[in-house]
Amino acid sequence: MRLLLLAALTAAPFLSPEAQSLRASGPAVPLAGSADAPLAHARWSPAGDALLATRPNHDGLWLVTPEGESRQVREGSAYAAEWSPDGTAILLRADRQDGPRRDHAVAMIDLASGETTLLSDWRATMPTLPRWSADGSQALLLEASGAVERFETGRAVEAGFAAASGSAFLLAESGTVAASAATDAPLAPLGGARLLNLTPSPDRQRLAFEAMGGNLYVVNADGSGLTDLGVGYEPTWSPDGQWVAFMRTEDDGHQMLAADLYAARADGSALMQLTDASGLEMNPSWSPDGTRLAFDDGQTVYLLPLFE
User: CA angle, 38 as apex, 36 and 39 as ends, to 5°?
Assistant: First the structure.
């Protein structure tokens, strides 16, 4: 397995001197996955003691430790599965094939028991993805009207999260609006533009998102402070909320040819390139302690150490 080259510290025109402290502090090292048993789309647990990964086509879920040990926790579709705030459960949109029709339901996996619980009925359409409420007591689903559908998870409200629930975002995988889980108020920062990969900041006061066919943005929870970070995909926040890491790609109109990782200050004042290799470095996820980025090349999950 190849190791990534260290990032070339090539500054964008607006790079500030203090931003030069953020860089890769060593080569990325392979963690888990191979050509025969690929893993991708890894996401850190809230405590940083595990990563949740899936196949490149989102088939199945695996738990991977930072030491590289892995175990499968689900078979079947696992698109955009999400950790609970306390890291003990997984929320996802489950699929089943019913003849020619594919149905969907909101599902929760308890990691201790391995039990899967359906929180909703099976339905023919589910255009958005379920998300946890900030306190973990509910699964939230954005309806086409912009209203929020709520499902009780049966889990105790987690200490330390109740105070943040009023600022929680409900996120749609694609659509033109996000919604506040507290007020059900729609947020459409780019008018009718379709929004992708909506990702709340750690304090849930800001939102990073992509515009379909456009750039990567950050906006405040009240819709103010819209900031254009330039071209970027798959945003992930640093734990202190100061940086947004993402990937930039090149393609020939049919397939991806190259991808590298970058980080920008959330206020748009600085940009750093973190990887500079000939292959694909995709789908970053920032560790809770801020010291590593997990990413993949479509087959293997890597850890890139960071220094700030």
Answer: 160
**What one-character-per-residue DSSP string does 33-97 give?**
--SSS--EEEEE-TTSS-EEEE-TT-EEEEEE-TTS-EEEEEEEE-TT-EE-TTSSEEEEEEEEE
Quote the longest CA-to-CA distance of the chain.
Answer: 60
| Coil, helix or strand at residue 21 | helix
Token look-up 């989102």 returns: 58
Q: How far is Cα 307 from Cα 305, in angstroms, rounded to an integer? A: 7
For 28, the token pair is: 């990325």
Within a 10 A sphere around the Cβ of 109, how many other Cβ atoms? 21
DSSP per residue, 247-279: EEEEE-SSSEEEEEEEEEETTSS-EEE-B--SS
Distance CA 64, CA 50 (A): 6
Report the distance separating Cα 112 and Cα 289, nearest Å.
24
Structural domains of the chain, with CATH: 17-307 (2.120.10.30)
Give the pTM: 0.87
Task: Give the DSSP H/E element, type plus range, for residue 175.
Answer: strand 174-175
**Could you read off the pLDDT of 132-164 as tens digits, one per residue?**
988 899 999 988 777 889 999 998 776 655 444
Nearest to 198 by CA among 188, 210, 186: 210
Question: What does the mean pLDDT of the chain come to?
Answer: 86
* Stated length of the chain: 308
d(CA 263, CA 246): 6
Q: Are 106 and 128 in contact (CB under 8 A)?
A: no
CA 4 from centre of chain: 22
